[in-house]
Amino acid sequence: MVLSRKWLLVAMAVLVFGALALSQVTIEFWHAMSRRHGPILETLIERFMEENPDITVNLVYQGRYGALSQKLIGAVAAGEPPTIAQQYENWTTQWLDALVPLEDYLAPEVLADLHPRFREMNTFGGKLLTVPFNKSIVVLYYRPDLVPEPPTTWEEFLQLACELTVDENGDGVPERYGTGLRPPNPEIFLTFLAQNEGTILSEDWTEVTINDERGLETMEFMAQLAKCALVQGGYLSDPFGQGLIAMFVDTSAGYPYNLAAAQEGGFEMRVAKVPCHKNCSSMVQGTNLGVFELGQTPEQIAAAVKLIEFLLRPENTVYWAEESGYLPVTVSGFESEEWQAFIAEHPERGVMTEQFLEGGFGQLLHPAYWDIRSLILTYYEAVLLGEMEPKEALDALAAEIEALITE
Prior knowledge:
Elements: H1 5-22, E1 25-31, H2 38-51, E2 55-61, H3 65-77, E3 84-87, H4 89-92, H5 108-113, H6 116-121, E4 123-124, E5 127-128, E6 130-142, H7 154-163, E7 179-181, H8 187-195, H9 213-226, E8 229-231, H10 237-241, E9 247-251, H11 255-265, E10 270-272, E11 282-291, H12 298-311, H13 314-324, H14 331-335, H15 337-345, H16 347-359, E12 360-361, H17 369-384, H18 390-405
Parallel strand pairs: 1-2, 1-3, 7-8, 11-12
Antiparallel strand pairs: 3-11, 4-5, 6-9, 6-10, 6-11
Helix pairs in contact: 1-12, 15-16, 17-18
């Protein structure tokens, strides 16, 4: 009798987990969680190891995301990646063949519980190669003493941002800006582009569309908004806490930092959904978890899969979300009594949940998106700083993207 690949994998898993019970297995987990988020992850890993004393997880902080990405590139090139690691979608496209196809290993009930939008964001070429982990959504932070009613449309957002920009001494440098924009985060532009039903590429990835009428309208809106915004490269929590910004768009992952800044500044902070246009899209950010097949033993792969299933349990994804500011990533997590009670008690977190469920979308999964994103960042920054006009920037951007996808 010839066994199917699926049943062979099941048989292998049984044998592997049996071996795990007899011997100690060590896996390495590379991550970029520090400060507020690192201790929460450490707690989850400690709980996992208590439940699985035959598995040791070496949790290795590799610095911020930029450092982690470079170390992963080097490790994969050398054939020595960790067993499991955080990774953005545009990183994953750089090493698709080095990863385990997780739909062949995860239990069916675990696969079915992944929120459909997250599953789509983690599927590459028809294969589920990663699972969502620390996922956030773009929302609006604001001071209710300055913004009694948060804006709900582009027009309201722009008008209010300019009304709240104050230059008391007329020196051209406002004492307070209506909003803030951070050029290194092009996901804000992409959020508004999606709200205008614009795209980077056509659906079949053969045509560059970012400089069409919808793209131009979006970039022109960003240029107008920049005139009433503090434009800076660093995170906006510090100027927000210093009273320099009345409201700004940021990820839900920034919530604890923004809240701490507001408390230090002595004012209240609230959260609302991003002002909408033709729709209420909002870009999902944050990384996923992938298990490397390259350089790993079957026992290590099985242990890493077991860790992923542990992290995806409703009680664990909810704990992670409650403590970190990220979102649950499973249907059972979103629908759990614990999460529903939590967002009822913390309405700002309910806003984040609604924002994702209403319009969350992920990265373009094109193999060249790593470089495409860098190009968007460059030209988006040039527009915000007034160094290029929107049409000039978008046409130049489109030409460079065209060159990338036709290489």
